[in-house]
């Protein structure tokens, strides 16, 4: 039974901020099969293509038949907790600061035995449900949950290390003029965020949906034009130490590729808004977030980018836009590496065409802004790194994995 | 009694038990400790270093060196060489290989040595870099090291067989009593059952006095043929039998027995003795619960009766079941791979009658066991050997 976490008290400015430490990071290359699973919220184990048995930890040959054909496949999540222990004096700084820390040995119904972090409501001899999570060093770890729902489940101390739950955290949504931004604000408030700062460029200019934001409890409109370096820096000087989660909702969609456009002015705008805007935000807010990765209940926890799934494969009808998104995707990997020492996760949410004005001529299915907002919350709560929202995004993901050349040809229609 | 088809160790003897007294922390390297042990071997046996024509080395902290680098380092020219990275099973495994080498005249005098240093950060580095499965699937989970892994095994064992902390504590307390007679033991204060039970928890149910203290030190012995020992006028013990097993009982969901249980018939059949005949027993005591498991698996009692066995017996030097007479790793210290040698070297001293203050009266038959390498969820390597002194 878990006590609900309490709202954090106001921080004493005279006290030193505890610096983040990382749990052990080294892994074998094969073991990163679990990193991929954890990034997408899947539970995958190696399964032998020859004899069908499951194996764990990551192996190079099947321990039942010595076949090298060990593929990572989605596996049944159910197991039984055989034994548990509480590490009270670990040798590693990260765990020492968080001790006592509970771990256990889980016998999976599908065969292997897994050492796992335990949710506090897991009991010896009882069934558990397993997941792979990304820990504060960004590496995959096995996590055992009780089989059913328990009260205040998400408030478990060890689980909260694996996630970026918005509860009691302060969030910056960078663009409140967009529908996605406004839906994100509502979803994050509903998820228990303490404060949602909403960036609006030139806030004196009225905009649709403004009444949903202005004067609402726990929502603060702040001046932010991400494409403007000084604007981002000014805001960070004001609230940079209070941003626990940053949702980069920058949106700049224009149709067209290369040959039917004249000159580079539109492309330059796309780069200014999406790519350089991302850089401005990262340089303004990233350093403080990286510093505050272990700063109590409302430590800095996540950076979220909303990207077009065409960042992964160029869609010539929106070809230059696709390229600007690809640049942002690449930059997100750089940001992920640089935020990693702080334990701050970077979550990329990939969406197909959204049901907004700039995709007006695109036939359905299109993604509703509200679905993106809900995916942001569930991704943060689940501690994910990659999220595909909507049918188009999911299809592109699968087709890219199956045959990138086929996808390239078929996007040219 | 089980029949064995294995070739007897006829004519194989062990001599010159060497212990380089342990220290908690050392600024010297593993190579320094191994060098001291080799020097002591040569001095004790009254031979020249050039008489050593076989070398078997175990260490966790030699850095990039293996046995071959050590030959040049120490000016040895050998025709038989082995490096054995089996942790707590290294001494038994090394002895087995060396015995066959001298028996077949591949070598005449094999020096078996284990040594490790312990700098202030050595132990953490060893934990971090122990094995691939450990790196991938154990260390990132609380970084509790062997304590956490053995805690899971201990908890399951104790629950399954109704073992209490007090039962396990009898082993640790008796070993401390023995250690008080060993001037080289790092633990010098008496340990009562009350103190044992009141110790601070490390990783439940493992408490402070269930854990060994990492330290620096070295242990060694010589393996040769009987006639070589005679020509050197060296007191020596005969090797009667050995067993070794790795990754036994892989289908047990959790470890409740080690590989000994698979080979125990062989061990006693080859030696031609029964468990009751043994005068002194040296188990591998990285945790007392693992010792209790060995009492069962080595045939002193049935599975699940280990707790009753320790309640019924006095495990001290003067008791009815003299066990880990030097104090064992729990009270002497765990000098890395030398911890594997501690019991075997002490057992050798016992049957040679040279154990001094820890000597068991009239000891002539000793068993020493080894256990090592908690690669993932269980100790993988196990072994045991039976030695007979000159009086038998």
Automatic annotation (TrEMBL), chain A:
This is SDR family NAD(P)-dependent oxidoreductase. Residues 1-33 are annotated as: Disordered. It holds the Pfam family OB_ChsH2_C. PANTHER family: BLR3430 PROTEIN. InterPro entries: ChsH2_C, ChsH2_Znr, NA-bd_OB-fold, NAD(P)-bd_dom_sf, SDR_fam, Thioester_dehydratase-like. It comes from Bradyrhizobium rifense. It comes from the Bacteria. Residues 37-70 form the ChsH2 rubredoxin-like zinc ribbon domain. Residues 73-133 form the ChsH2 C-terminal OB-fold domain.
TrEMBL record, chain B:
SUPFAM superfamilies: Thiolase-like (SSF53901). CDD domains: SCP-x_thiolase. Gene3D superfamilies: 3.40.47.10. Residues 268-374 form the Thiolase C-terminal domain. Signal peptide: none annotated. GO terms for molecular function: acetyl-CoA C-acyltransferase activity. InterPro entries: Thiolase, Thiolase-like, Thiolase_C_2. This is Thiolase family protein. The lineage of its organism: Bacteria, Pseudomonadati, Pseudomonadota, Alphaproteobacteria, Hyphomicrobiales.
């Amino acid at each position: 039974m878990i006590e609900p976490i309490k709202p954090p008290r106001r921080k004493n400015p005279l006290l030193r901020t505890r610096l983040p430490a990382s749990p052990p990071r080294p892994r074998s290359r094969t073991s990163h099969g679990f990193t991929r699973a954890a990034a997408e919220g899947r539970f995958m184990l190696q399964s032998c293509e020859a004899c069908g048995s499951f194996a764990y930890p990551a192996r190079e040959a099947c321990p039942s038949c010595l076949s090298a054909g060990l593929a990572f496949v989605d596996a049944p999540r159910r197991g039984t907790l055989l034994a548990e222990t509480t590490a009270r004096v670990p040798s590693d700084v990260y765990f020492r600061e968080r001790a006592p820390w509970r771990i256990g040995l889980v016998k999976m119904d599908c065969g292997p035995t897994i050492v796992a972090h335990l949710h506090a409501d897991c009991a010896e001899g009882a069934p558990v449900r397993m997941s792979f999570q990304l820990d504060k060093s960004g590496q995959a770890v096995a996590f055992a949950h009780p089989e059913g729902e328990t009260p205040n489940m998400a408030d478990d101390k060890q689980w909260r290390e694996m996630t970026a739950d918005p509860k009691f955290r302060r969030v910056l949504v960078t663009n409140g003029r967009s529908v996605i931004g406004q839906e994100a604000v509502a979803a994050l408030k509903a998820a228990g965020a303490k404060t949602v700062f909403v960036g609006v460029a030139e806030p004196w200019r009225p905009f649709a949906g403004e009444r949903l934001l202005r004067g609402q409890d726990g929502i603060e409109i702040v001046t932010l034009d991400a494409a403007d370096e000084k604007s981002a820096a000014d805001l960070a000087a004001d609230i940079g130490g209070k941003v626990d989660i940053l949702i980069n909702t920058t949106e700049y969609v224009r149709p067209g590729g290369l040959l039917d456009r004249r000159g580079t002015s539109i492309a330059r705008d796309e780069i200014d808004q999406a790519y350089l805007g991302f850089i401005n935000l990262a340089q303004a807010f990233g350093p403080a977030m990286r510093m505050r990765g272990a700063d109590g209940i409302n430590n800095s926890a996540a950076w979220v980018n909303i990207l077009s799934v065409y960042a992964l494969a160029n869609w010539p009808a929106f070809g230059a836009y696709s390229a600007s998104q690809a640049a942002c995707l690449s930059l997100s990997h750089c940001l992920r590496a640089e935020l990693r020492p702080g334990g701050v996760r970077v979550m990329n949410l990939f969406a197909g065409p959204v049901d907004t004005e700039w995709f007006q001529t695109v036939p359905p299915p299109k993604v509703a802004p509200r679905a993106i907002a809900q995916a942001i919350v569930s991704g943060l709560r689940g501690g994910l790194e990659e999220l595909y929202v909507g049918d188009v995004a999911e299809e592109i993901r699968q087709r890219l994995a199956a045959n990138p050349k086929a996808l390239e040809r078929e996007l040219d229609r | 009694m089980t029949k064995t088809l294995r070739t007897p160790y006829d004519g194989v003897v062990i001599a010159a038990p060497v212990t380089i007294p342990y220290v908690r922390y050392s600024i010297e390297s593993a190579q320094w400790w191994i060098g001291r042990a080799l020097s002591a071997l040569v001095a004790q046996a009254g031979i020249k270093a050039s008489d050593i024509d076989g070398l078997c080395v175990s260490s966790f902290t030699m850095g990039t060196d293996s046995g071959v680098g050590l030959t040049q380092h120490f000016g040895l020219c050998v025709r038989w060489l082995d490096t054995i990275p089996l942790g707590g099973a290294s001494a038994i495994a090394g002895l087995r290989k060396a015995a066959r080498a001298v028996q077949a005249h591949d070598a005449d005098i094999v020096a078996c040595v284990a040594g490790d240093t312990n700098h202030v950060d050595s132990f953490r580095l060893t934990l971090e870099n122990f094995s691939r499965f450990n790196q991938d699937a154990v260390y990132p989970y609380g970084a509790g090291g062997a304590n956490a892994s053995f805690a899971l095994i201990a908890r399951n064992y104790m629950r399954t067989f109704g073992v209490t902390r007090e039962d396990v504590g009898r082993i640790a307390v008796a070993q401390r009593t023995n250690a008080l007679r060993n001037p080289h033991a790092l633990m010098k204060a008496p340990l009562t059952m009350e103190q044992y039970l009141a110790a601070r928890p490390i990783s439940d149910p493992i408490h402070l006095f269930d854990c060994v203290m990492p330290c620096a030190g070295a242990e060694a012995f010589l393996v040769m043929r009987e006639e070589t020992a005679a020509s050197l006028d060296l007191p020596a013990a005969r090797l009667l039998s050995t067993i070794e097993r790795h990754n036994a009982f892989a289908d047990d969901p959790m470890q409740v027995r080690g590989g000994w249980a698979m080979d125990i018939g062989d061990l006693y059949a080859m030696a031609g003795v029964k468990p009751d005949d043994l005068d002194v027993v040296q188990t591998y005591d990285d945790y007392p619960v693992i010792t209790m498991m060995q009492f069962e698996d080595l045939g002193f009692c049935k599975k699940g009766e280990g707790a009753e066995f320790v309640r019924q017996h006095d495990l001290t030097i003067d008791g009815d079941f003299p066990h880990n007479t030097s104090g064992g790793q729990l009270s002497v210290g765990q000098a890395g791979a030398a911890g594997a040698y501690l019991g075997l070297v002490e057992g050798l001293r016992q049957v040679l009658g040279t154990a001094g203050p820890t000597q068991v009266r009239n000891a002539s038959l000793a068993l020493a066991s080894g256990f090592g390498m908690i690669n993932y969820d269980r100790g993988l390597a196990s072994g045991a050997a039976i030695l007979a002194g000159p009086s038998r």
